[in-house]
Specification:
By secondary structure, the protein is an alpha/beta fold. Helix 1 runs antiparallel to helix 2 and helix 5 packs parallel to helix 7.
Length: 228
């Protein structure tokens, strides 16, 4: 078994590094904001003794800045405190289901490379090499639905060309690239592809083997039993 499989200390270390980098980014942003506010305060103080007109201008600038901050908080309040919380919970639910599938892969799937949408996460949890298919943005902007879906109709060929033996698919795939309607259609296309053999299926995740047509009785269970 690959040393990364079921290695909670390794995953914890990766999460710690990611958290530290995020905190560093926040600190840099806050430092930049603090510098700009300090400059504004210095400008207001230097202009205050120079006359009423400068005072009025300074008060107007400070009031405008405060109004802009309040407007931004009001406009983004729901997204930050409601929408973001919901997104985080969705990702946690999906990851919980994915980890069951990752365990199943470690027990029942022979060595081989995978397709996985979030291939870095897949590698960290399974130790298996994986890659994802690039999604071109231009068809989306042209509203060309067929061009959006075309790469997924040849997913099996893409997997063979890349030396991939398996596909790991989840309900969260392509959430950064495609609208919900196209994501649903992609799942339907792949489920009906005759050269993909279904090995495992749970509520939110599926695993396919590339090559043979689908045969009856090849579905594993979410509890981690091998495919028959």
């Amino acid at each position: 078994m690959h040393p990364y499989v079921h290695d909670p200390e390794h995953i914890k270390g990766v999460r710690t590094v990611a958290t530290v980098e995020f905190i560093k980014g926040v600190v840099v942003v806050l430092a930049g904001l603090g510098c700009e506010l300090a400059r504004l305060g210095k400008t207001l103080r230097s202009g205050w003794p120079l006359g009423l007109a400068n005072r009025v201008a300074g008060v107007a600038m400070a009031g405008g800045l405060a109004a802009l901050v309040c407007f931004g908080l009001a406009m983004n309040g729901e997204a930050n405190f409601v929408g973001l919380t919901g997104i985080i919970q969705q990702h946690r639910t999906l990851l919980k289901t994915d980890r069951v599938a990752f365990d199943w892969i470690g027990h029942y799937v022979p060595i081989g490379n995978f397709y996985a949408y979030d291939d870095p996460v897949f590698f960290l949890y399974t130790g298996r090499k994986a890659c994802s298919i690039p999604v071109a943005p231009m068809p989306f902007y042209r509203e060309d639905r067929e061009a959006i879906l075309r790469p997924f109709r040849s997913m099996a060929s893409f997997a063979r060309d890349q030396g991939l033996r398996y596909l790991f698919l989840t309900s969260g795939d392509f959430h950064r690239d495609l609208p919900q309607g196209e994501r649903t259609e992609v799942r339907r296309i792949l489920a009906q592809e005759p050269s993909l053999e279904l090995l495992y299926r749970s509520e939110l995740a599926s695993i396919y083997r590339v090559g043979e047509a689908v045969r009856a009785g090849t579905v594993g269970t979410a509890a981690g039993s091998p495919a028959k």
